[in-house]
Amino acid sequence: MAWATGRAFNEGKAVGKMAAALRPSGWWQRWRRRLSARNGSRMLFLLLLLGSGQGPRPVGAGQTFEYLKREHSLSKPYQGVGTGSSSLWNLMGNAMVMTQYIRLTPDMQSKQGALWNRVPCFLRDWELQVHFKIHGQGKKNLHGDGLAIWYTKDRMQPGPVFGNMDKFVGLGVFVDTYPNEEKQQERVFPYISAMVNNGSLSYDHERDGRPTELGGCTAIVRNLHYDTFLVIRYVKRHLTIMMDIDGKHEWRDCIEVPGVRLPRGYYFGTSSITGDLSDNHDVISLKLFELTVERTPEEEKLHRDVFLPSVDNMKLPEVTAPLPPLSGLALFLIVFFSLVFSVFAIVIGIILYNKWQEQSRKRFY
């Protein structure tokens, strides 16, 4: 019995030594722990990058990357919409927030509404993706009037141009659903067009904005059973507008204009209006992406900041800047010196009159 116990003890020691010999040494264990920690950190960073939705995404020819800018974007559940000072987006007019969309105007006559971003955009190159829906009870040519997407100097200014002010300063992209010009036949509606304004031009409703448009295309977007999208891209002073309205998840070219000069610091917004005819004009999402683009030194010199919107090879009327209002001190000084000059002129006049009278008396004597 004692021999069996001792044998078992010796066999246990032999097995332990063999296991110790097969066990990895201390430096191998330390290297494996470092490798695992390093791989774990990389995996965590990758998961955070993918989960955040703000990582760079290649666009185009591999030299352009886009970054989602949440302060200029809007999507469900529309938490940043309201009238408070902390809201990123403001509603105006008849616009209202629903669970699945923001309705700019209902399918009712004489309504107008708008949605405006409160944060000015200082991006140099950007892309705005708009998910929208236009639908209603009206039959062919008995619906209207459409919606507009804006990048303008002024915000929250109601007016006749698809619910926004006329003679705006900036860029307007219009989805016009009703033809006002009866004689035209070569254009099929709904129709997408774009306009750049420095504040001197009026939008011509009677001619559907044709005198001032940069370009356009037909876009059948009413009462569709699939999603409709519009993208506005501004890169290196090159304006491109594309649409995805066929349910194929493919972008189709609509407008392409080089030499468009837009200042930074303007506001994004969207608006709509109805008149005698109406439609539901809904916005589901607005997503703005910052585009990082490589520029040569020559392009850096050419693409300097501008202060008024313009388009190369397109003459826009010059805007005369209004005179700034006078301050209280300036007004006081003007009135004071005017009174002093008047009193001085009166005194000089009296002196000259008295001398004239004395000379007249000397003649008679």
Descriptive notes:
The protein has 365 residues and is an alpha+beta fold. 25% of the residues lie in helices and 30% in strands. It contains four helices and 18 strands. It has helices spanning 2-22, 26-52, 297-302, 328-364, and strands at 57-59, 64-68, 89-93, 96-97, 102-105, 112-117, 126-135, 146-152, 169-176, 191-198, 215-218, 228-235, 238-244, 252-258, 260-261, 267-273, 280-292, 310-311. The strands form three sheets. Strands 1, 2, 4, 5, 7, 12, 13, 14 and 17 form a nine-stranded antiparallel beta sheet that branches. A seven-stranded antiparallel beta sheet has the order 3-6-16-8-9-10-11, with no helix packed on it. A two-stranded antiparallel ribbon has the order 15-18. A hairpin with a 2-residue loop joins β12 (228-235) and β13. It is elongated. Mean pLDDT is 82; it is low at 1-28 and 30-54.
* Average pLDDT level: 82
Question: How far apart, in Å, are the first and last alpha carbons?
Answer: 172 Å
The parts where pLDDT drops under 50 for at least 5 residues are: 1-28, 30-54
Estimated structural class? alpha+beta
Question: What shape does the CA trace take?
Answer: elongated
Helix count equals 4
- Count the beta strands: 18
Approximately how much beta-strand content do the residues carry? 25-35%
N-to-C SSE string, H for helix and E for strand: HHEEEEEEEEEEEEEEEEEHEH
Q: Largest sheet, if any?
A: 9 strands, antiparallel
Give the assembly state of these chains. single chain
**Rg over alpha carbons:** 35 Å
- Fraction of helical residues: 10-25%
GO biological process, one term: endoplasmic reticulum to Golgi vesicle-mediated transport
Membrane topology: Single-pass type I membrane protein
Pfam families: Lectin_leg-like
Subcellular location: Membrane
